[in-house]
């Protein structure tokens, strides 16, 4: 399948990757889910040391993707980073990034931003590492639901989104990252990581492409019914 070039990451590096036998498309499967990664107040509210207003635009895009997913009956899974108040479960991640210590259970910083609030039937999992797979039940939840494709949205592009998208591929899921529905504190790292993900680990797509794929799933299910 020919690789499209998401406008958000237009770069000659993508052409170089393609010329070296990279950037093949793994595409969307028949049973996708939307994975909303860490759009919690600790990441989206600049009042928190980890928060950034750079998430505002991706959140607006994510709202449209969530609306399409719920209309189509596509499952939605949320993740958040949260620790015990005594940080006994913090490990080296918190040692490396002490600001993570603000993300304690019971605090506002671990609540999902109301702009992308959960709906009935959505699933929330708590993680303590950058990957949404490590130390969580995500793989089991997805396998139990027959999910074959993960549509990644959330933050941050260079951290938890990247690690989750890489691990999704490793665990055998088609991994899709929506370029305009993910954000980072650093625009440079956002762009660089989208380029690298698209070359090696995931299909980086626009929100329009993601919504079209979700709508196609709904249409296929309606036709099968």
Features:
225 residues; alpha/beta; Rossmann fold; 6-stranded parallel beta sheet; 8 helices; 16% strand; globular
Summarize the structure.
One of its GO terms (molecular function) is isochorismatase activity. Helix content is 39%, strand content 16%. By secondary structure, the protein is an alpha/beta fold.
Description:
- Keywords: Hydrolase.
- Pfam families: Isochorismatase.
- Residues 33-209 form the Isochorismatase-like domain.
- GO terms for molecular function: isochorismatase activity.
- The chain has helices at 12-19, 41-44, 56-72, 91-96, 138-144, 157-170, 187-200, 207-224, and strands spanning 32-37, 76-81, 123-127, 149-155, 174-183, 203-205.
- The protein has 225 residues and is an alpha/beta fold.
- The protein has one domain: Rossmann fold (3-Layer(aba) Sandwich), CATH 3.40.50.
- Strands 3-2-1-4-5-6 form a 6-stranded parallel sheet, sandwiched between helices.
- Helix 1 (12-19) runs parallel beside helix 7 (187-200), helix 3 runs parallel beside helix 8 and helix 6 (157-170) runs parallel beside helix 7 (187-200).
- It is globular and about 50 Å long.
- The model has no long low-confidence stretch (mean pLDDT 94).
